């Protein structure tokens, strides 16, 4: 007998003044904004920076949760992430896609574990991270509805 373990996560993004957006989920909230160079007030990360941060955070959590399974003592774990985005796609100046074309990350792992075990651990981590999987593979993204409020 198999158990279906589908969990639905939810968040709300509420546009404020200018391009400031308050994002909330459960009992938590954070601010998304754009830098001044892109018309914002620079009060928070922009959405594409938050996406990179979400990837690094997810990879870090997977590392923490599974390190013991691989007999890896994580003294420290940090991810540096960068992505290439052609703003001409967002501003409709050319036919390039508006999203990232490339995302690169580097794991900084402080451990006394042997290199082979760390490499096996990293391979597992990359295969297990839900955010990485969502970015790397197609997902069914669809508009669920439009509510016009008067």
Automatic annotation (TrEMBL):
InterPro entries, per database record: KH_dom-like_a/b, OsmC/Ohr_fam, OsmC/Ohr_hydroprdx_reductase, OsmC/Ohrsf
Source superkingdom: Bacteria
Pfam families given in the database record: OsmC
Name assigned to this protein: Peroxiredoxin
């Amino acid at each position: 007998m198999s158990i279906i373990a589908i969990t639905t996560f939810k968040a709300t993004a509420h546009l404020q003044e200018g391009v400031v957006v308050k994002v909330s989920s459960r009992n938590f909230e954070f601010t998304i904004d754009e830098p001044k160079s892109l018309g914002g007030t620079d009060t928070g990360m922009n959405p594409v920076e938050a996406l990179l941060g979400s990837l690094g955070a997810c990879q870090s959590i997977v590392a923490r949760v599974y390190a013991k399974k691989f007999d890896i003592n994580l003294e420290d774990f940090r991810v540096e992430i960068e992505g290439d985005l052609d703003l001409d796609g967002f501003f409709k100046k050319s036919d390039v896609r508006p999203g990232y074309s490339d995302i690169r990350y580097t794991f900084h792992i402080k451990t006394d574990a042997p290199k082979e075990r760390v490499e096996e651990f990293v391979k597992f981590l990359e295969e297990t991270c839900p955010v990485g999987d969502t970015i790397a593979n197609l997902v069914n993204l669809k508009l669920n509805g439009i509510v016009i409020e008067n």
